[in-house]
Amino acid sequence: MLVVVTVTILIIISVGIFMVYRPRPTTESEKLVVTETIKPPIRSPGRRKFPKHWGPEPENQKRDNRQLPGGYGFGSTTLALWIMKNMAADNDHK
């Protein structure tokens, strides 16, 4: 039991030291690479395309993931609200 606790503490300390002393990007190109790899993809790969008359998707979206209305796959709550608003507008115009 003492060995398990000791190993666990050593692992936690090692990870903490790595987080503090990890190399930081120094040039602008390194900073761009780091920020590009951290961003998760917002668009699901198999999602249907939205009608063109809806315009562009909202740019500022939450990072949550939920099922989208209308069979559009999964995405953020912001995107779901945008889809519902556009679907309601389409139903009003019919």
Q: How do the strands and helices of this protein lay out in sequence?
A:
Layout (H helix, E strand, L loop, with lengths): L1 H20 L6 H11 L27 E2 L6 E2 L1 H17 L1
Antiparallel strand pairs: 1-2
Description:
- This protein is 51% helix and 4% strand.
- The chain has helices spanning 2-21, 28-38, 77-93; strands at residues 66-67, 74-75.
- The protein has a two-stranded antiparallel ribbon.
- The longest helix has 20 residues, at 2-21.
- 5% of the residues are buried.
Short descriptors:
single chain; 94 residues; mainly alpha; 2 domains; 2 strands; 51% helix; 4% strand; elongated
At a glance:
With 94 residues, the protein is mostly helical. The protein has helices at 2-21, 28-38, 77-93, and strands spanning 66-67, 74-75.
Radius of gyration: 22 Å
How many beta-strand elements?
2
| General form | elongated
Fraction of residues in helix: 40-55%
Q: Determine the number of helices (DSSP H or I, runs of at least 4 residues).
A: 3
List low-pLDDT spans. 34-39
Question: What distance lies between the first and last C-alpha atoms, to the nearest angstrom?
Answer: 70 Å
Trace the largest sheet across and list its strands. Answer: 1-2
Number of domains: 2
Portion of residues in beta strands equals under 5%
Oligomer: single chain
